[in-house]
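Please decode residue identities from the backbone states below.
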């Protein structure tokens, strides 16, 4: 445990002194965590607070964020005047062919793509590849803040740690966590820093006490910031198929719940310099 803690300390130092992150990547230790849904809701929340938002979809397996944005553009034609749209949507990068070695051209174009978005946007939100890859690593290195969406499930925990055969007791960091550590190391070598915020999403079935304890200590063991938990993640999916989200319906039964969780995320994540400011949602 000593060596493990020592590595975490080296990777995590200096996070609290950073300025508001401009490039935010959302990823997860397991596919299907709901990262696209989180990005869509967060984008609308930031837009309603007067920030210009750019979206970059690097999840070539689903292209869910790009499809949501396209559907939102169609919905905008029939929407009311206060309907907000991301200021810029760019997904120039072509889907990488099979084989990690063939991602090199896409990785080479990534800094230019993010730079172009940053010129006109206050915040760039990146939907990370569904699985750890060299392109995903490069995208994390290019970001200021990594938001890890981690459902309360064994599959998610298995991505954070290598689990023992006896149960959910954590042994060593898993594939996903090692990728985050490597991204933070590379970022530090370039004179920057990558903040890491872990957000838990409540599962449909209540996790066991053993799993809850393992998740409770995951952020501390891995060197991430934690403490945020989405209580009703299903409410976040409202309207997604039409390019909408919960905040688009001020009178919806779950709107205030989602809005409060988004406020917590914006404040804890120090997003767009909005902490202490009046939020528009």
């Amino acid at each position: 445990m000593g060596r493990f803690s020592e590595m975490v300390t080296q990777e995590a130092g200096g996070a609290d002194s950073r300025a508001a992150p401009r490039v935010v990547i959302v990823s997860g230790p397991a596919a299907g965590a709901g990262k696209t849904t989180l990005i869509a809701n967060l984008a609308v929340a930031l837009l309603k607070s007067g920030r210009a938002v750019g979206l970059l979809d690097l999840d070539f397996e689903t292209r869910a964020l790009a499809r949501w944005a396209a559907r939102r553009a169609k919905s905008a034609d029939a929407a009311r005047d206060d309907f907000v749209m991301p200021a810029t949507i760019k997904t120039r990068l072509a889907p990488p062919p099979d084989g990690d070695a063939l991602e090199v051209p896409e990785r080479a174009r990534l800094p230019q793509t993010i730079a172009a978005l940053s010129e006109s946007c206050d915040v760039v939100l990146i939907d990370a590849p569904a699985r750890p890859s060299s392109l995903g690593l490069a995208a994390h290195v290019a970001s200021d803040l990594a938001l890890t969406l981690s459902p309360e499930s064994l599959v998610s925990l298995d991505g954070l740690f290598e689990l023992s055969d006896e149960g959910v007791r954590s042994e060593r960091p898993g594939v996903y966590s090692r990728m985050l550590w490597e991204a933070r190391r590379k970022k530090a070598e370039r004179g920057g820093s990558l903040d890491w915020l872990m957000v838990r999403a409540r599962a449909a079935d209540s996790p066991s006490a053993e799993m809850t304890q393992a998740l409770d200590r995951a952020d501390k063991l891995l060197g991430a910031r934690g403490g945020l938990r989405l209580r009703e993640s299903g409410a976040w999916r409202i309207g997604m198929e039409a390019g909408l989200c919960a905040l688009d319906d001020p009178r919806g039964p779950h709107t205030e719940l989602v809005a409060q969780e988004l406020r917590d995320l914006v404040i804890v994540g120090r997003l767009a310099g909005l902490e202490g400011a009046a939020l528009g949602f």
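Observation: The longest strand covers residues 145-151.
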